[in-house]
Q: What sequence folds into this?
């Protein structure tokens, strides 16, 4: 049996994608792998339904492809964290809005001043939402290109699960 030494490209691919040893190199990634991995990140736009969709991708495709398993796991962790934080902020926001209207006498004419902080909170929420969705879009683009992506702060924790 003749042994052929690895080419420079083989060594580069093995080094860069060593987490996917079972599948081989990036050249062995199918387009379906990239599509499912990218869609798992984009599912954040569907809120709770998107989290369920990402969970379904993870459950059904984890044995099919390590690449999909890795990205779906990262996306699922990110979506769950964002969903929980969003629900908590919504509870505070709704409670503050109701308290602001009732506590400042909105009906009596002073309530217009209570709208200003609420509008500021809405503006801050829009900016944060754009950042959250932009980060998910960036992650999906990495997945569509066949690249590995790990979310900042929570990515290492998700890997250990």
A:
């Amino acid at each position: 049996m003749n042994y052929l030494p690895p080419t420079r490209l083989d060594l580069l691919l093995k080094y860069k994608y060593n987490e996917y040893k079972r599948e081989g190199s990036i050249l062995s990634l199918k387009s379906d792998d990239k599509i499912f991995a990218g869609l798992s990140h984009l599912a954040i736009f569907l809120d709770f339904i998107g989290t369920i969709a990402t969970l379904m991708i993870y459950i059904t495709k984890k044995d099919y492809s390590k690449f999909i398993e890795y990205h779906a796991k990262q996306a699922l962790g990110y979506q769950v964290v964002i969903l929980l934080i969003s629900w908590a902020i919504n509870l505070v926001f709704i409670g503050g809005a109701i308290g602001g209207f009732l506590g400042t006498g909105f009906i009596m004419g002073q309530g217009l001043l209570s709208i200003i902080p609420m509008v500021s909170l809405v503006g801050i929420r829009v900016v944060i939402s754009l950042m959250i969705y932009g980060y998910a879009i960036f992650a999906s683009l990495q997945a569509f290109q066949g690249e590995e992506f790990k979310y900042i702060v929570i990515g290492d924790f998700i890997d250990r699960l």
User: Anything to note?
Assistant: The mean pLDDT is 79. The two ends are 41 Å apart (CA to CA).
